[in-house]
Amino acid sequence: MKALRFSLSGDRVFASIVLILVVAGIAIFASAALGLLARAGAAPGRIALTQILLGLIPGIIALFGLRFLAPKLLLKFVLPVYVVTIILTLLTFTPLGVTINGATRWIELGFTTVQPGEFLKVSVILMMAAYLAHAKQKITDYRHGLIPFAAIVGIPSMILLLQPNTSTVLIVGGACVVMYFLAGAPWRDFAIIAVCTLVALTALVFMRPYLMNRVMTFINPAANAHTSGYQIQQSLIAIGSGGLLGRGFGQSVQKFNYLPEPVGDSIFAVYGEEFGFLGTVLLILLFVAFAMRGLMIAAEASTQFGALAVTGLTLIITFSAFLNIGAMLSILPLTGLPLPFISHGGTALMSALASVGIILNVAAHRTKKRAAL
């Protein structure tokens, strides 16, 4: 019976952490959605329904489907999925594309919208893992290392930057660099990547006013408290008013009219106001535990592809979480990233749960010694 339970989950500890995050996420999201009742034109019931029907339920199906998919079959599908997700992301530039707040990241399906970039970032990680596992020792040669790395990451990055979706590029790029390092790439390549990244980011900040505004707001958030710094100011008020233990579940004041995007990237501020300092520390520790357990699974993977894939998938979820939390605490610039498993966004939730399914798949095929624990 013990072996059966382990087989079904892949890794009971990791599965338990995700379960807590998902269940807590549903409760936090429900509370934050109540704040939309005070906003004209908002439809909290519809938003909650789409989160469940188009995010949670398909995400759970994807999780179990990928958990029990044969590892060889998963590897076989990597390239086709990579190509398909690139094509789907390109569709955002067609009449099917939907522009919200100046960003064209969604595809209109009639009854809802889908953000294909969420699937693209998972496929890039898997493609990078598959290539690095295939190239092995040859990656020290730039023809088999740096150039393919640049192509695998660069093509999707250019598409995402055109949307624009800079934050996703940073997360995926950062995770891929870590994977590249773990696969044995030479330090020479990291120097090249670092210089190119610095030049590209500097150029983007000066070319795109909204990025410059975010940088300036981060440096001095009080300078434009009623414009570009408004979200940060309201977030800090919400979190600060939570005190040690918080106002109590459902008792946030800032989610009514004051806090922008209370079910989106500001949801951590709503949570901080309702659960206080101790609650926020607990949530942060959950994401730390998620990262540590995920990386432990990667270290014990039976194949290099599995190890690299789990590392990358764990990192993109963890990076997203801490960039979101850091932005709401004003210790990092605003990115617009959702809080994984919690923020509104059916595609993001489905993508995160699908990633968990792959991680549990790799965990289930570890060595017998580990599986017996």
Strands across the major sheet, in which order? 1-2-3
Structural class: mainly alpha
Strand content: under 5%
Number of beta-strand segments: 3
Kindly provide the radius of gyration, computed on alpha-carbon positions and rounded to a whole number of angstroms. Answer: 21 Å
Largest sheet: 3 strands, antiparallel
What is the domain tally? 1
How far apart are the first and last residues' alpha carbons, in Å?
13 Å
SSE string, helix = H, strand = E? HHHHEEEHHHHHHHHHH
| Molecular shape | globular
Please bin the fraction of helical residues: 55-70%
* Overall pLDDT level: 88
SS summary, helix count: 14
Low-confidence stretches: 1-6, 368-373
Model description:
With 373 residues, this protein is mainly alpha-helical. The chain has one domain. 68% of the residues lie in helices and 3% in strands. The protein has helices at 2-9, 12-34, 44-67, 71-90, 116-135, 146-162, 166-182, 187-207, 209-219, 230-241, 267-299, 304-328, 346-364, 368-371, and strands at residues 97-100, 103-108, 113-114. A three-stranded antiparallel beta sheet has the order 1-2-3, with no helix packed on it. Helix 3 (44-67) runs parallel beside helix 13 (346-364), helix 4 packs across helix 5 (116-135) and helix 5 (116-135) packs antiparallel against helix 12 (304-328). The longest helix has 33 residues, at 267-299. The model is unreliable at 1-6 and 368-373 (pLDDT under 50).
